[in-house]
Amino acid sequence: MERAFLVGIDYRVRSRAGSGAKNAKSSLTSGAQAARDSANSGASASKAPRIPEFSAQESLEELRSLATSAGAQIAGEFLQQRDRPDPATLIGRGKLEEIAGAAASVSADLLLFDHDLTASQQRNIEKVVNARVIDRTQLILDIFATHARSREGQLQVELAQLEYLLPRLTGRGVEMSQLGGGIGTRGPGETQLETDRRKIHRRIRHVKEQIENVRRIRAQQRKRRESVPVATVALVGYTNAGKSTLFNALTQAAVLESPKMFATLDPTIRAVTLPSRRQALLSDTVGFIRNLPHTLVSAFRATLEEVQRAALILHVSDASSPLSAEQDAQVEKVLKELEADGKPRLRVMNKIDLLPPRQRDSLRDDAGTVHVSAAKAIGMSTLLDRVDQMLHEDAVSRVRLRVPQKEGKTLALLEARARIYSRAYRDGLVELEAEAPESVVRRVREWVVG
Prior knowledge:
The chain has 14 helices and 15 strands. The chain is α/β, with parallel strands linked by helices. 35% of the residues are buried.
């Protein structure tokens, strides 16, 4: 197990609140916006609602969870406050030497920065600390690579890693700028750096072609599904919000449940029976995170298309997390990037079993929110009822039927897929009053009366 030393950065950004106003300080997350505009004096009534942001300390805590999920042992951490990033080393030469000493004193194998580093910044830092340096994006990519199980997931992670690596080849060492050896492997006078770039570009093209094949196959599967009136419901949410646990509770599937971040990468779709006896397809998706690397969003677009095409999105939030509002804001940003922010939405506040009893008792569901505990199976029937109400595919209607008793298959179908309100036996017929989805009514049309 590698020993990791964490480095966070707290930027103190000064913004001017109108003419003659005093400068104000605000603490921003390392990956958040570089500045925040404040309203002019007297215009507070017209302020847009503020999007919650992670504080630097909260961001560092999330980095700690990411590092643990990657299998690292936390050896120490450091939070640096600066007015602006240093172009050469991000945190400044003097502070870097201080961190190098602190990391060496705890025998750290690598430094994890809660910030994206440029290629030159990464090289400059490594020269001073004499240890491996990894930024936040690289750490997330590593976790994704560890958890990808299907061929599709592995391809998507590989594409993201290659696109991350490509601009970072320059200056990786003397060996990268020397003429390479080997017959038939390079053009005349081609350097090792150019060869690596050419190989990576070729591999990126190959991986994209394979992912495109996956998208075509997935589109064909989706087309077949859409030919049957079955709605797809997508689970989305911040990583470790309990989506897979909820998925298992609703479908009785056996998807991996883990407290580690990004435990689910490969999409899983299972059927779920709603209270109206309609069938719906539930899709478990990869968890989101603040500043999700754009390469990952692009690479996983084939997977995330399930979210774009879903009839209903269940936004799963961790009700027990003090950062729930900030996490929800980050999920909204990713949904907007996926152009899925206009989809019908139901907020599912999960993990209410972890709340204090008094706070749990005060919770009230409303038209857009349901409170549940997937781990303790609390609120599952309420959630399914609400999903049933919000889906319009395969509409339910009330019908009266007279079915011959010998039609065992038809009677079994109605027993399994319809709500039966009354049943009577007369002259070899079964007279039923039932509520059934349109797909079932079509199959028993010849016995519908009235």
